[in-house]
Design goal:
The complex is a heterotrimer. By secondary structure, chain B is of the alpha/beta class. Chain B has 23 helices and 29 strands. In chain B, about 55% of the residues are buried. The N terminus of chain B is likely disordered. By secondary structure, chain C is an alpha+beta fold. Chain C is about 25% helix and about 15% strand. The model of chain C has no long low-confidence stretch (mean pLDDT about 90). The chains are: A mainly alpha, B alpha/beta, C alpha+beta.
């Protein structure tokens, strides 16, 4: 309650302080909870050495493993062959959505590379049928959340002059985890509002609701 | 499309359990994580165009087809769907603006009741068929037809669609092209042609200082409404023009008038002559340019005579004349309610005489020039064609008739007997988007691609001194694989008739592409063929210029009937509104839910009555009245206000669709066109829409209520809309406004 | 978060008013509607339906006052300032049209009554409504003097967009479900898109770059929309936006309960200004020859 009383907000305080004793207690309890959380956040906040000028969001999640029509090996591409995430997810820096790469992009390489592998043959089959595969969505947020990739890439990659180019995937890993160690991507970050919000607080992101919800 | 999976009830539960504390830390509670992985599908492009970025809208230029005005539009396309239309700022017609019908074009495109497959009549019902069957049947029926036995009824048409359509008529050897629009300027055009030598003169609202309009609803339905709306904004900026509207019931233009005068339908001509008399006798203007018979006609309409003939106050008539003289240049227009009589031509001619006396010709009424390519020039519709078609059908003159862009079974008064005489036509082909009244009677239904799916070129019938060809291009893939563009269908029909000139064109796109390759080089500005085509598509239009013409005032003799029929009977006014237009947009839910501009009625028909007439009949708002003419009767709910002449009952157009037009228009309201008498203007043959005498009586109420938006007709003392006199406006803002 | 937003913005607004300016506001979006030009044609209203995923509720629900027209065109027959209509036989000066949408009040009465802080002021001067936070108490609607907030009494999406109509829905904003309040947002999705673009190009938003659906479509150009704080354009060297020019010309200032105009005849006014809600929409008097 003490937090509120110092604000120049006559009308609002009047309404709030008329609350029952029980409400006050709840508020006090929650205030302590908040303090504890803030303390925990302070101690646990780690700076990722590979991504300068950024505090990675805290939080983890373990969900279900989702099968995909083709078991796409992110590890082969991003880790072993060190392909930049945005080589395939090319829309991430230009749009709200990162986008699944178009089938033509896969075929750009795989019309000649590794054509004997069964997964590539399956891909070629899709290509020849002119029918892109129907992927199962792993990283999803509710429809009232309007997340934009481009602004995040702008903040953490494009405007981040100290970032080494080979570490771009570390930025993506903030929200997507170490996808380069996976085959098909699994959701390993909670992507809840709290998860977003902690990152926004730590990195001076906007706290305006209408930035994401509209 | 998925929607939020959070149940509000669950959310409330969390709130109740945790109180304020929970809402503050609740952002991380697992209960709010409701989306499971793998529940939704995501599909990539196979091979996208370079400029396509998912999540980023791309704008394409096209042309609106909601009314014949031909406004340029931009469509926002995202992930292959068109989401929003805006006006194309490059178009001289609408200058980047768009009306509600244009906005709602998307709902015609995405309409759940669109026809998705060709249909062929088997006995009493229409059954799904293939295009091959439909084309085959048409080829069979038209194989050996003589030209006089074939007819094609269309709405207003222009551009390359018009070229192909004429080519098809020629291939059959038929000259029977009926162009029908219920909302038209046909009488105005005829009078302009006769008196000025140009059927489509340019109206300079931006130059005019005052305007007298006899029922010309130029903000709603007259001419090119959106164009005149943009011009109206100029008319109203300082020095602010004065608008005087004379009409039987208030239109959108009337609602914006400085002075609104109620007229008994048919008396407009007398009023115009009375004002002319005042201008000559009191304001010192000359009428020497007019034929002697017209001069003596004007002399006969003295103030007393005019008051008797029109019922308008003497002071008011003198005032109007004085205002027109004082606020020069002026412009006098005439529209639907002035032309809709047996002497409609004379009424409009009398209005044009005012323009001559006031010296407006050449000042506010200019020559518009003529579109350079006659075969693509717009062919504007009228109701004379509907009358003559009905007659011909009754006389069993046709064996095969095509209908496209029209719904004559709905727009023809029942007294013309069109619906019955259609049975005399053995084979009817309807090009259609929806299962409207005419489509329901077809033998073959050809489902058309929507405006947003089709190619085309259009020449707007009213352009301000320019000759723009506006491009219509698809804004997205067709929703159904079984619909075809109008141009594609006609091209196929031409090929089926073994017209070798068209063999080289794979589709209508190829035809259009070739037409733009072979366009005279002066229009290409030195660009390469491919570059020129890209530029035209990006701009949405190309100005090919006009042939200069000039206006020449010609003396036209006309008379004015003194006796206006039964002067004690009520007259039905089937007024049109920007919205449903002639009824074609009643299937668009946005327009059904958009309250009518004047009465604020939604989802229904209504009859407008003056309070004194309502009192006489004994009805209150929402009560039912029976309107009976010699040709039929309708029952409709009443809206009472002071914007209607006491002798008039106005039932705006739009509703009363009896076929399965769509779930939104079905069983809703009445069609006031249906009970009109088959009277026509004697000079032009146009249907006299405002001349049907009716008897209005109270009828039993039904459960179906009149729903209107807003509770209050007045501001109840609150300063919501405040009004200042024009002289104050001129004093404070005259000559200095934010551009 | 939302609560802190509410508190921060209120204190910022109060401070700004006391010191005669709007502190720390990045933008302050405002409007000017010229009733001399408005013809009451409904284009703005239908454009709003198209842009903002507004549900069509049908006749029965419309009758109960559940129409979701965020922008409605009101029509009045009387003219208190001309004072003649009650006695004359005809409606001789036409009708009075008033396009009415959320007035984006700076001291919005809807904000302090929301029990969950779902409506608050954004740093660019918008009165925000956060659907996923709203619990549907409808206090805001009760407290709105303009009656411009619309409540989802039903899950309208079930009936409003039968396939394929749902393909027209704008993916930039949510489709609202049963139990939440909604209202005009000044097309926040358009504002945000333009701001994002400007940010991606490392520049500021230019005047005229953001257009609401209603102002873009208005056939007579009666609706002007822009930044009330002005925008500096390095190319023209002009700091005023079209909207600020209009407000200055008509001598209407934000943050005042009563305008002390030098020229009292200037047409600008704000609806219900005396209620001290400080709306961001200025109307210009209708003009009639009398």
């Amino acid at each position: 309650m003490s937090v509120l009383q110092h604000l120049p907000l006559g009308r609002f305080i009047e309404a709030a302080s008329r609350g029952s004793r029980q409400t006050k207690q709840t508020v006090q309890v929650s205030f302590i909870v908040m303090l504890l959380m803030a303390a925990m956040a302070l101690f646990s906040a780690k700076v990722n050495a590979e991504v300068p000028n950024a505090v990675p969001p805290e939080g983890s999640y373990s969900g279900i493993h989702v099968e995909q029509p083709i078991e796409f090996p992110h590890d082969t591409h991003a880790d072993i062959n060190e392909i930049n995430c945005m080589y395939c997810h090319t829309y991430a820096r230009r749009s709200k959505v990162a986008g699944i790469p178009p089938t033509s992009k896969c075929m750009g390489c795989h019309s000649v590379i590794a054509t004997d592998k069964p997964r590539i043959q399956k891909l070629t089959e899709y290509w020849e049928n002119k029918q892109p595969p129907l992927w199962n969505k792993v990283h999803d947020v509710p429809d009232f959340v309007h997340f934009t990739h481009e602004k995040h890439i702008k903040r953490f990659v494009i405007d981040n002059e100290d970032l080494e180019v080979e570490n771009v995937s570390e930025v993506c890993a903030f929200c997507h985890g170490e996808v380069k160690k996976m085959t098909v991507a699994d959701k390993v970050k909670p992507l809840t509002m709290g998860f977003c919000q902690r990152c926004h607080q730590a990195n001076d992101g906007p706290s305006d609701c209408w930035h994401c919800h509209k | 499309m998925s929607f939020s999976k959070i149940k509000r009830r669950d959310f409330l539960k969390i709130m109740g359990w945790g109180g304020v504390g929970a809402t503050l830390v609740g952002c991380d509670l697992p209960t709010t994580v409701t989306l499971e992985e793998g529940k939704e599908k995501v599909v990539s492009y196979l091979m996208p165009e370079e400029y396509v970025i998912p999540g980023v809208g791309v704008w394409y230029a096209s042309t609106c087809q909601q009314c014949p005005s031909g406004c340029g539009i931009h469509g926002r396309v995202r992930e292959g769907r068109v989401l929003k239309l805006e006006g194309n700022p490059a178009s001289s017609v609408n200058k980047g603006r768009l009306c509600q019908m244009g906005q709602a074009s998307l709902q015609a495109h995405y309409n759940p009741d669109r026809i998705a497959k060709p249909k062929i009549r088997r006995g009493s019902s229409l059954v799904d068929a293939t295009w091959e069957e439909a084309y085959g049947l048409i080829a069979e029926k038209t194989a050996n037809i003589s030209g006089s036995k074939f007819a094609w009824m269309t709405g207003s048409v222009s551009g390359h669609q018009s070229v192909l359509l004429q080519a098809y008529l020629e291939s059959i050897g038929s000259g029977n092209h009926f162009v029908h629009e219920t909302i038209n300027n046909a009488v105005w055009a005829k009078v302009c042609q006769d008196m000025l030598g140009d059927s489509n003169p340019r109206i300079r609202l931006d130059k005019a200082q005052s305007m007298l309009s006899f029922g010309a609803d130029f903000l709603g339905t007259w001419g090119s409404p959106l164009h005149f709306s943009t011009e109206y904004a100029k008319f109203r900026t300082s020095p602010r023009g004065t608008l005087i509207q004379v009409e039987p019931n208030m239109t959108l233009t009337g609602a914006n008038a400085d002075l609104w005068v109620a007229s008994r339908p048919g008396s407009e001509g007398a009023l115009a002559l009375g004002i002319a008399n005042q201008l000559v006798s009191k304001q010192g203007l000359s009428m020497s340019g007019l034929p002697n018979s017209v001069q003596s006609l004007i002399r006969s309409y003295t103030l007393d005579e005019t008051v008797t003939a029109t019922g308008v106050d003497a002071d008011r008539i003198a005032d109007i004349a004085a205002t027109l003289k004082r606020r020069s240049p002026s412009v006098v227009l005439a529209g639907a309610s002035a032309q809709g009589h047996e002497h409609g031509y004379q009424c409009v001619a009398a209005a044009m005489v005012l323009n001559v006396i006031l010296g407006n010709i050449g000042k506010t009424i200019e020559s518009n020039g003529e579109f350079a390519y006659a075969s693509m020039a717009p062919v504007s519709g009228n109701t004379h064609s509907l009358v003559s078609f009905s007659q011909a059908a009754a006389d069993k003159r046709f064996d095969v008739v095509f209908f496209s862009g029209v719904n004559p079974v709905y727009t023809a008064p029942k007294s013309l007997g069109l619906k019955e005489s259609l049975a005399n036509i053995p084979f009817k082909v309807v090009f259609s988007h929806f299962n409207d009244e005419t489509t329901a009677m077809a033998d073959v239904v050809l489902p058309l691609a929507s405006t947003e799916e089709d190619w085309g070129t259009h020449v707007a019938p009213y352009q301000a001194g320019v000759g723009e060809i506006s491009i219509q291009q698809p804004l997205m893939e067709p929703l159904s694989t079984e619909t075809r563009g109008f141009g594609d269908i006609v091209l196929t029909l031409l090929k089926k008739r073994k017209e070798t000139a068209y063999e080289g064109f794979a589709d209508y796109y190829a035809y259009l592409r070739n037409a733009f390759s072979t366009i005279p080089a002066e229009h290409k500005n030195g660009a390469s063929d491919e570059q020129f085509w890209t530029d035209v598509l990006a701009a949405g239009l190309i100005d090919v210029g006009v042939k200069k013409t000039s206006l020449k005032v010609k003396g036209v003799e006309f008379d004015m009937p003194k006796e206006m029929g039964n002067s004690s009977a009520m007259i039905l006014a089937p007024s049109a509104r920007l919205g449903f237009w002639d009824g074609r947009h009643a299937n668009l839910p946005w327009l059904q839910e958009a309250p009518d501009q004047i009465s604020k009625v939604v989802w229904d028909s209504w009859a407008e009555l003056h309070p004194s007439t309502a009192k006489k009949i004994g009805v209150k708002e929402g009560d039912m009245v029976k309107i009976a003419s010699a040709s039929g009767e309708i029952n409709v709910k009443v809206y009472i206000y002071k914007g209607v002449h006491p002798d008039v009952i106005a039932v705006p157009l739009g509703q009363g669709h009896d076929a399965g037009f769509s779930r939104y228009a079905k069983d809703r309201g009445v069609n006031s066109l249906s009970i009109l008498d088959p009277k026509v203007d004697k000079m032009t043959g146009e249907l006299a829409l405002y001349s049907t005498n009716v008897k209005v009586t109270k009828a039993a109420k039904t459960d179906d209520v009149l729903v209107r938006f807003g509770g209050s007709e007045t501001q109840v003392g609150r300063k919501l809309v405040s009004t200042i006199p024009a002289d104050v406006y001129e004093r404070t803002e005259g000559g200095d406004h934010v551009a | 978060m939302s609560l802190s937003n509410l508190i921060d913005d209120w204190s910022r607004y109060r401070k700004g008013r006391e010191e005669g300016g709007f502190h720390d506001y990045e933008h302050m979006w405002g409007m000017s509607i010229d009733l001399n030009k408005c013809i009451g044609c409904n284009a703005c209203s239908v454009a709003c339906y198209a842009e903002n995923n507004l549900a069509v509720v049908g006749k029965e629900k419309f009758e109960k006052g559940q129409g979701m027209h965020w922008l409605r065109v009101e029509r009045y027959w009387d003219e208190p300032d001309l004072g003649e209509e009650r006695t004359s036989e005809f409606q001789q000066h036409g009708a009075s049209f008033l396009p009415m949408m959320c007035q984006q009040c700076n001291a919005a009465t809807c904000e302090p009554v929301c029990p969950v802080a779902a409506t608050y002021h954004t740093p660019d001067g918008l009165n925000a409504q956060v659907y996923n936070r709203c619990i549907g108490s409808r206090y805001c609607s009760n407290n709105c003097p303009f009656r411009l907030r619309y409540f989802n009494f039903w899950s309208y999406y079930e009936d409003s967009w039968p396939a394929p109509l749902q393909m027209q829905l704008n993916p930039d904003i949510s489709v609202r479900d049963m139990g939440v309040m909604e209202k005009c947002t000044f097309c926040v999705q358009r504002i945000r898109t333009v701001k994002d673009t400007a940010r991606m190009e490392d520049r500021k938003v230019r005047d005229g770059e953001v257009q609401t659906a209603c102002s873009q479509t208005c056939p007579t150009g009666a609706i002007e929309f822009g930044d009330m704080l002005g925008m500096y354009d390095p190319e023209t060297g002009v700091a005023e936006t079209r909207v600020t020019k209009m407000w200055r010309k008509h001598q209407v200032e934000l943050g005042k309960t009563k305008q002390n105009k030098q020229t009292p005849e200037m047409r600008g006014y704000r609806v219900f200004e005396f209620l001290n809600t400080d709306p961001c929409v200025m109307y210009l008097d209708r003009v009639r020859e009398v």
